Amino acid sequence: MTRIVAVGNANVDIAVFLSEIPGPDEDVDANSVSLGVGGSASNFASTCALLGEETSIVAVVGGDPLGSFYLEEMAQRGVDTGLVEVRAASQTGFVVILNVAGSQRRMIRYRGANLLLADDVLRRRGEALRSAEVLHTSSVRPAVVRTLVEMGLGISWDPGWTAVSRYREEVLELMKTGQVLRAFFNEKELRALTRSDNLRKGAASIHEMGVEEVVIKRGGAGSAALTFKTWYEAPALRVRVADTTGAGDVFDGAYTVARLRGLSPREALKAANFAAGRTVEVPGAVKGLPSWNEIRSFLGEAN
Questions:
Q1: pLDDT digits (tens, 9 = 90+) for 41-84
Q2: Residue 46 falls within a domain, yes or no?
Q3: Is 67 among the domain residues?
Q4: Which of 118, 142, 180, 245 would be 170's cystine partner, CB 3.0–4.6 Å?
């Protein structure tokens, strides 16, 4: 039995590192370019697999070279891709990420085959979804989450900014179903969803909707969690940021693995902060991910 199943987008990330963004009708030379797999759920699955958990992903790719690259790369990371659907006539989704030192990254997204992740794909994989100890979905359309809820599945969910900002009422409605067991947000998302500037009160409002565990990613301010009415916090690491791509997904994955392995919410927050902090020091979504032994060593030193 696969312990963790992720549901979500399958992308190829094309990260371009620049000294400056060109203006209209201008061109600049890139300092470097890296190619990797991405998509929030893909980064999450990669993190869990690389930390040693049996992990599968449900996603859709095209029958093109980018789709083949995605499947090969995920398999190399230890993720079971047997639940990925290949649509021969479609194009695999991709994201072009523009990174400028000292500036916020810019992203250009092509959804492609990700738009085909729908009710039929999920229901054909019902047995695998039901057998997972953790079923996690992130940055997908609310319709995907609604299907999982209608299938009677308990889920871990990171809605992401697009869902929170565009489909706020639907996200809140899904949070109230009692089937969202764990929810991840960053500060901006939680504030927008709850319309509260007080993170603790915002988390409490989500908790009161029936979400057992509300986890908040605070970047340089660390992280926090509210579970069974108990509030936990953990400080961030001091790091040199090279690339923040996928850091939130790595956090989600490391936190999930830590909780599966019996760590308390506070220790899981520390583990996730460490994993995400080390990841942002190296370009590429999971290339800087520490091993589980390194995380355990850090927790021993931190205590």
A1: 999 999 999 999 999 999 999 999 999 999 999 999 999 999 99
A2: yes
A3: yes
A4: 142
